[in-house]
Amino acid sequence: MVSIGEGLRMSLPIACEEFPHELGDLAVLLSSGLTIG
Hints:
mainly alpha, 0% strand, 1 helix
């Protein structure tokens, strides 16, 4: 069984790597005219 700490230790780098990609996608969509809300 994997501890919560080990799970977080593996998830955090993945989230840090994915966040800029998602932010870039959002920036492209917003510049294309997407509205939020």
